[in-house]
Known about the structure:
With 811 residues, the chain is of the alpha/beta class. Among the domains are: 157-244 and 473-547, Leucine-rich repeat, LRR (right-handed beta-alpha superhelix) (Alpha-Beta Horseshoe); 656-810, Leucine-rich repeat, LRR (right-handed beta-alpha superhelix). Helices cover 39% and strands 10% of the residues. A 15-stranded parallel β-sheet has the order 1-2-3-6-7-8-9-10-11-12-13-14-15-16-17, with helices on one face. Strands 4-5 form a two-stranded antiparallel sheet. Helix 11 (198-213) links the parallel strand 2 (187-191) and strand 3. Helix 30 runs parallel beside helix 31 (792-803). 39% of the residues are buried. Mean pLDDT is 74; it is low at 1-5, 65-86, 265-472 and 579-585. Residues 291-339, 361-401 are annotated as: Disordered. GO terms for molecular function: identical protein binding. InterPro entries: Leu_rpt_41, LRR_dom_sf. Keywords: Leucine-rich repeat, Phosphoprotein, Repeat, Ubl conjugation pathway.
Amino acid sequence: MEEPGSGPPSLFALSGAAVSSSMGALESEVWALPAHILHGLLPLLNVYYLERAEDAAASKGRSFGNRRYYLQQLQSRRSIPSLCQRLSTQPIWRKLWNDVMKTRPPKSEHITCWRKKFLETFFSNILHGVLDVSSDQRLNDDRFSPLLHSSQHVTQLTILNMLQGVTELTAERNRRVVENLAGCLKTLKFRHLLSSDLSIRHSLSLLLHRLIHHGAVNQVSVYSWPVPDTVLLVLILSMSAGFWHPSKTLMHHCGPCSLCRKEPDSQTQKSTQDDLVDSKHLCHGHTEKLEMGQHGSHESSSIKIQNASTKVPAEANPDPKASTELKGSSGSKTPMLYGLRNHPLRNRVRHDVSCTMPPEQYNAERESSSPSERSSAGPALRTPHKKLKCSSRRKRRSPRRNWGLCADPEDLYDFVFTVAREAATETLNESVHERENLDSLASTPADRLSCESLGCMGRGGSSGILSLKAAAPFRSIATLELFSVPLTGDACRTLGNLLSSWTSLESLVLSYNGLGANIFCILSGLRALSHHNDRRLRVVRVSDVFSHVPSVELVHCILSAFPWLRTLSVSFDLKHHLEGSRPEGSLSSLEEIPESCLEQLEIRFPREPLQTALLLPVLKASRSLQQLSLDSAALPCPQEFGLLLQALKERNPDLKKLSFHDVNLADHQEEVLLLLQDPILQEITFSFCRLFESSTAEFLSEIINVVKRNSSLKSLKLPGNRLGNHRLVALADIFSEDSSSSICQLDVSSNCIKPDGLLEFTKKLESHLLQRGERAKFTHLRLFQNWLDQDVATAQEALQRLRAVCSVVAC
């Protein structure tokens, strides 16, 4: 295309403009044109035909957008024409991005397909109303539907603020858009959400049901929600876990969706039978035994249902009207979809701290209930076992709700957070004893709760949050991430309940959620989940400002429950100073850790001692460990640090990466040298470790000599250790001609390096690399946050010469 002001347009440009304006009639002939003509014509096409050009190329066995694929096809025919490079549409999509989006995308150097990147961002901007298609003629075409045509390229979608776009997507006119998203969308993100009304939640429920339960979404991430709407948060969490109760989230009862109606009748019949049995068990306090597979001997203890809440279990009294609609809908039955009477959360008992009420108040409320309310249960729920009749007469039945067609926001708790009202006991003495324990737990302050008091530590399961008996009725996601979303006690208990049966969950990230003592609810849910034979959880990351329990104890607790984890990260900024000292019994009776599959372990200590005695069993059990990171730990004495290094050498033969950040190693020079000469480690990081705070010049020479003899070490990272100019210049000797070092990456960020010192280092490095020739493997140098602005000219000269021999990151 001719640039503006470069003279009159060429005949080709005029012809191309005429062809592009008549593509509706000439499209098939255009795709048959020779490659060199198509190359000049493609930039003149609008988005609609540029997109169709890719489809046309694919149908002919060639690809404009994927140059690598095209090259492979041509090479297989042993013919590589010089025009193959010019057939790529990547530069066209990249230029379209620059002209329309007018921003530089993050990590643009890693973008492999600008077509997908443009159309995915284009979809999001159109949906949120921040892009007008009339702003550029290349975005206009009568047959081009912005949402429909770009939706098939969307793998990640972000929903913002007041859930803009949710109502638009669930409109009937965009049904095909949602169908496209259900097939290709993998990640759903919520960012900066605000409160929402019932109509928005109605639309969000329908959207999540299609994208998660009947779609391909595998990850849900929630970011930056300072004051979360609890009802909305519970809705997102529960539907992500595969649980949905439409009668409580939708504005009107609309029957099962078309995909739900396709479920086999056999599953429907089985679900109905299971539902009937479970409803009887819940209503009459039937003592159930949990089946935990390999933990059967521990999990087969009977579960007593206690009246630990002021809320009536929503699912104990299914709506007869809804039941009639379900059975008669479309002449077929639907699996446990709407009533969720087979909801596994209903089959679990929990000791709810904040929701426990005194027995006197509880009995008074039940006495005030009307006879009609007490008899409102369905037929299946009004047939008690004769064995339990005498005990059930001692208490009058609690009032039961009849759910209307319009959802009450508070009903979501009754759906997700089901607590039984009546005590089911085998003997009166056991009932009295358990009630005393419950009352004692209710009177315990939140900051005094421990994992034991909530039942987290029992090998046979959790009395605080028991494992769910049945699988989730809908498909659930594999990755859940909550960043900067404060979680209240109720929200933590709800999440714990969901986690206890979330068998599809593979990665859980909880970052700065203000958990405090409520972290035990999460641990209890994870422990219950660990008893499922089909659990898939492999990654757990927990970070927060204040730690309620010591970091290593938390690692010990999680790993003892989940030895199948591959990655475990625990990070806290500050230690929570409780009145007195530490919580009584908080993770005090730590279990032995079985042999684990852990490959990556990251611990950030809130200025706590290293707790070597607790860390050593973790390392001993993790023989597959490949990466270890210790951050902000206080080393009590050199002997304990030596024990740690000895354990790493003996117990972790596969350890490849070791990182210390903000750990004072000034008095541990001997241990530092031992690490640098380890023949197994490939990457070592000493970040802000004060290595040279009290050292002599001989220490630096020893470091250089050790690294020169170590051929297994590939990466050495020394940020924040005050190297200065003279130590940086000395480090260049690592690459001398007599060196056996295989160092590829060197990080000297934040080391008070000035331009003249960098230039001297550069000259010395150039000389060494030239002498070593092909034996030199140095490729990356990081220079973040140094004093290079003191002499810009010298710094630029040094950087220019460095970039000739390696990749440099200095911004």
